[in-house]
Amino acid sequence: MDYATLLVEIDDRGIATVTINRPDKLNALNADVIADLDAFFQRAGTDGAIRGVILTGAGEKSFVAGADIARFRELDGEKGRFFAARGQAVFNRIEQLSKPVIAAVNGFALGGGSELAWACHLRIASDNARFGQPEVNLGIIPGYGGTQRLPRLAGLGLATELVLTGDMIDARRAYEMGLVNRVTTQAELMDAARAMMTTILGKAPLAVALTLKALRSSDRPLAEGLAVEADLFGQACDTEDFREGVDAFLGKRKADFQGK
Ligand code: COA
Known about the structure:
The chain has helices spanning 31-46, 77-95, 112-119, 146-154, 156-165, 171-176, 189-201, 205-215, 222-237, 240-250; strands at 6-10, 15-20, 52-57, 62-64, 101-105, 108-110, 122-126, 130-132, 169-170, 182-184. The chain is α/β, with parallel strands linked by helices and 260 residues long. The strands form two sheets. A six-stranded mixed beta sheet has the order 1-2-3-5-7-10, with helices on both faces. A four-stranded mixed beta sheet has the order 4-6-8-9. The longest helix is centred in the first third of the chain and has 19 residues, at 77-95. The protein is globular and about 60 Å long. The mean pLDDT is 97. The chain binds coenzyme A (COA). Residues 25-26, 28, 65-70, 108, 110-111, 134-135, 138 line the site of coenzyme A (COA).
C-alpha cells in the first residue's frame, strides 16, 4: 500500500521503517500525514508481515517540527477541538499497537512532533535532536497529548517547565530526563533503532504484546494496575510460547517462539 506522505519499508524480519516524508516543511503534520499515519497503524495492527515499527522523519534536520502551522488560521474553538481529538485518536492508535513502536528522532521534535515521540513505546534520538512543546509561543496549548503523556514520562515538574517555557532541550538533556532511551550519532541512529527492535523481536511475540498492554495500565492506581498485570500474566501462561520458553531454559537450548 502506498501513502502520499509516508515512505514505508518492511524488511524480512518484519521491521517496518516508516519515514514521514515532507522534508521541505520539516515533516510538519498536516491532515494528510495524520490520515496516512492512521491508515498505516491500522494496517500494522493486523498485518502479520509487520512485527514492529520504527518511525522517523525524512532528511537530516527534523523528525517532525509540529503540527502544520500553515493551517492554524482556519481553527476556531470547535474546529480546534476536532483537530486535537483527531490527532489524539491517531496517537492513541500508535500507543495501543500490540507491536513495539520505536521513534528514531533524527532532529527537531517540536509540538506535535514531540507528542508523536511520546506516544511511541521507545525513543532513540540522534545527538542533533531537539525536543520542545512551543505551543505557548503560538497562543495555544499542546493538543496531541503533550499535557498528558509528557508528565507521565518526565514527571509533572519538568513537564510543566517544558510546556510553560516552550524551551527546546537537546538530546542529552532529554536522555537525562528519561524522555529518550538512547542517544546516538545521526549516522548510527537507524542501526541503533533496528538493533533494539531486533532484540525485542527475538522475544515471545505474545509476551511482548501482553507486556505492552500491562504497561499501559501503569498510570492507574496500583491495585488496579496489579489486577490487570495478574490477568495478563495468566493469559501469558496459556500460550504455547510460555511452554516453549520454559522448556528451552530447562533444556539449555534457545527458545523457538511461534507467537502462539
Ligand atoms: N508547520 C508548518 N511549516 C513548518 C513548520 C510547522 N510546524 N515547521 C517548519 N515549517 C516550515 C517553515 O515554514 C519553512 O517553510 P518555507 O521554506 O516554505 O518557508 C520550512 O519548514 C523550513 O523551516 P524554517 O523555519 O525555515 O527552518 P529553520 O531551520 O529556520 O527553523 C525550526 C527550524 C524548527 C526552529 C522552525 O521551523 C520552527 O520553529 N518551526 C515551528 C515549530 C513549532 O512551533 N511547532 C509547534 C507547532 S504547534
